[in-house]
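The protein record minuted underneath.
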Amino acid sequence: MFNFEDKNVVVVGGTSGINLGIALSFAKSGANVVVASRNQEKIDAAVAELAKVNSSGAHFGVSFDVRDLAAVQAGFSIIADKLTTIDILVSGAAGNFPAFAKDLSENGFKSVMDIDLLGSFHVLKQAYPIMHRGHGSIIQISAPQAYLAMPMQSHVCAAKAGVDMLTRTLALEWGREGIRINSIVPGPIEGTEGFNRLAPSEQIQKHVAKSVPLGRNGQKDDIANCALFLASEYSSYVTGTVIPVDGGWSLGGANVALAELSKLMPS
């Protein structure tokens, strides 16, 4: 259905989990895919996976920490030299851990804010000069915590709310240049570090699935399919949106599941 042949896609945080799933889906659809993360070993492994699903694509990786502005600038300088133009940018770097606010250190709060919010700003601002004018698409990976207060997630709630407002604001500022920007809000997605961290046992994950109106936890392809849509001409009049891809979980099941999980945590 989607053809991204000859399109240049950059996926920040694209070496694992949801973001790697997105990167692979774009590669399968014909795109040249660049992945960025802090770990060079993971970058090399991801690039090898991209080559397996699309051997004709010009895939490569760059290493930087989104919190380090100088490193992000250097990384996008490499990308600009090799690609000239970015058609599609996925900003997906994120940090999370469960902690009650009374136990959360200032450094822990700042760390998540720096990765999720400041890191998003760094990535978008450095990508902006080389985004395609007229058909550029930016996709941010948000979280239900952006609009649902959750126990043990004060740091993430604050950071992701900022990410979604960044999406909306830049949609206003960059729209006339033909750059669209939207957020995807994944629900509970199986086989990802984030989900395993917040729901660390099979029993808890089954409990979460029961709290989802569609009766199942999501798959990485569920998020990737939405990203393909948002990057395509089928969504050419869509910008500034925050789209939950969560089986209806944010309608009420998310807070039920997290409240139960908080009971299992030491108080």
Summary: The mean pLDDT is 93. Residues 106-127 form the longest helix (22 residues). The first strand starts at residue 8 and ends at 12.
